[in-house]
Every structure is written in structure tokens, then in C-alpha cells.
Description:
Layout: H1 3-24, H2 40-60, H3 75-95, H4 97-112, H5 117-138
Amino acid sequence: MSKTFDRFAGIAFLLIGLLFVIESQRISKSSYGSAVGPDIFPIGLGAILILLSLRLLYETFRYQTGTKNGETVQYKKFIIIFVSALLYAILLEPLGYVITTFAFLLIAFQTMERGKWVKSILIASLFSFGVYYFFAEFLGGSLPGFPVF
């Protein structure tokens, strides 16, 4: 990858991680009296993102300038997946988890590797339905399953 691209990506992910940690402090605490509240998961994800972005920034100072082994920077794929992730976050509540997750995974799979539509549709549908069923039905969690029109 490009050193400049990696630095910008590291800074962007560092800021997103900080935003996760800061904003998760605003989530209300558990009403059950448990020490583990609903803010633990976003804080953990934010901390992991901060650590990984710091590692990426550190690595950019260690390797040589330019691309390695003739690799080209794939901005188009990155932008498609980044925009898809933003749309996923925006449309999750109105369209539900199953539909948005299926669409995001299908777009991401096709962006990374064109073709193999049957395999992509099968994996995206199994993952979105499987995670929804496991979390909402088996664990009793709350996810916006399907849109309410």
C-alpha cells in the first residue's frame, strides 16, 4: 500500500476509535445492577480500533516510500466498501439488520472478488440470518430484524 494512504487511514481509524470510546460513555448504564453494562462492547471495539490504528501508523514509519512489489493502491474498492459501510450504518434501523447486512456483505464480496454470485449470496444470507437468529432468538437480544412498513 501507499505510505500516504496508510497514514491517512491510520489517522481516520484512530479518530473513529476515539469517537467510539467517547460516545459510548454516553450510553446509559445497566439497570440490573450488573457491573457489565451495554457500553462495554463499543468501548472494547473502540480500544481495539485505536490500538490497530496506532500499529498502522507505527508501521508507516518503518517501511520504504512507495508501493511494495508493484502492488497498486485500490482506491476504488476502498471507497465502495467505505460508502457501503456508511450506508449500512444509516439504513440499519429503517431497513433492519437482516436486509442491510445481506446487502452490505454482498456488495463487499462482489467488490473484493467479482463473479461467484451464488457463493456470495449464499454466504451473505447465511451470515445475516444466522447471526440474527442466534442473537435475537437464541440469546434474547434486540436487533431491528425486518422493516416495519
